[in-house]
Design a protein that fits this description.
Mean pLDDT: 90
Radius of gyration: 19 Å
Strand order of the largest sheet: 3-4-5-6
Helix content: 10-25%
Largest sheet: 4 strands, antiparallel
Order of helices and strands: EHEEEEEEEEEHH
Organism: marine metagenome
InterPro entries: Dockerin_dom (IPR016134), Dockerin_dom_sf (IPR036439), EF_Hand_1_Ca_BS (IPR018247)
Protein name: Dockerin domain-containing protein
Shape: globular
Distance between the termini: 30 Å
Number of helices: 3
CATH class of the largest domain: Mainly Beta
CATH topology of the largest domain: Thrombin, subunit H
Structural class: alpha+beta
Number of strands: 10
Strand content: 15-25%
Low-confidence stretches: none
C-alpha cells in the first residue's frame, strides 16, 4: 500500500524455493512475478506511470465474470475504483519488455468519485456491476459500468466504517449443508478451529464450498478474513 503498487508472488513455492530464483509453478522461486502502480520503485518509468496511491482491496475478477482475469481495486489517492488488464502471455505468465515498466500504461475502467481516506473496496459482480465500499462514510453501492447506482446501503452511527463488502447470491445458504456459513469442521460452532481448518484447506489447494465464504469460486486469504469477521460478530 505505502509503495503505491500491487505485487504478485508465487504461493506454490516451498520455503527453500522462495529463497531462490527457481521453483514453484512459475519457475521463478521467490522473485516478484508482477508489480504495477508505481514503477519508479524499481527505477523504471516516470511520474505518468505512477497511477496508484494508498490502494486497497486488490483482487482478480473471477472466471466467468465480465472482465475475468483483470485486476480491480480501490485507488484511494484518486478516490475511485479502477480496473486494469495485466500483460500475460499465452501460457498465463506476466510479461515485461527490457528496460520498460510492467504494463499496462493505463486503466480500462474507473468508477465515479468516492472519497475515503482509509481502506475501501471494489468487487466485480456476475452481472457486470461493481460493488464499491466507501469506508469513511460506511456506504456500500452497487454501480453499473457507466456509474449508475442500482443499490446502496449506509451503516448508521457516527463512528461507523465499512472496509469492504461482498454480495452473496440468493441461493448462497442453500449450498451450505449444515446451514452455518463458515462451520468448516461441521460442529455447529464458529470458532478458531474453523479458522485452522480453513487455513489448511487454503494451503492444500483443495476446494470446499463451506470454506468459500465470499463465494468467488476460490479459497484464499479473503475467505479467512471473512471467516474471522463472522466469528467476531457472532
Amino acid at each position: 500500500r505505502f509503495q503505491d503498487e500491487i505485487i504478485v508472488i508465487d504461493h506454490s513455492t516451498t520455503i527453500e524455493e522462495a529463497a531462490s530464483h527457481s521453483g514453484g509453478y512459475s519457475g521463478k522461486g521467490g522473485d516478484l512475478l508482477y508489480r504495477w502502480g508505481n514503477p519508479q520503485n524499481y527505477d523504471r518509468g516516470n511520474n505518468s506511470n505512477h497511477i496508484l496511491g494508498d490502494q486497497h482491496s486488490i483482487n482478480w475478477i473471477p472466471e466467468g465474470y465480465p472482465g475475468e482475469g483483470n485486476f480491480i481495486l480501490f485507488n484511494n489517492s484518486a478516490n475511485e475504483a479502477v480496473e486494469f488488464i495485466p500483460p500475460v502471455n499465452e501460457d498465463g505468465f506476466y510479461t515485461i519488455e527490457d528496460g520498460q515498466p510492467f504494463g499496462p500504461d493505463d486503466i480500462i475502467w474507473d468508477s465515479p468519485y468516492y472519497s475515503t481516506a482509509m481502506q475501501g473496496g471494489a468487487f466485480r459482480l456476475p452481472n457486470g456491476n461493481t460493488l464499491i465500499t466507501d469506508c469513511d462514510s460506511a456506504d456500500i453501492e452497487e454501480i453499473t459500468e457507466n456509474g449508475s447506482v442500482v443499490w446502496s446501503y449506509s451503516q448508521p452511527g457516527n463512528n461507523a466504517n465499512i472496509a469492504r463488502a461482498q454480495k452473496y447470491a440468493i441461493d448462497y445458504f442453500d449450498q451450505i449443508d449444515n446451514g452455518i456459513v463458515g462451520d468448516i469442521n461441521g460442529d455447529n460452532i464458529l470458532n478458531i478451529l474453523d479458522i485452522v481448518s480453513l487455513v489448511n484447506l487454503v494451503l492444500s489447494g483443495n476446494y470446499d464450498v463451506t470454506g468459500d465464504i465470499n463465494q468467488d469460486g476460490f479459497l484464499n486469504i479473503l475467505d479467512i478474513v471473512s471467516l474471522v469477521n463472522l466469528i467476531l460478530v457472532n
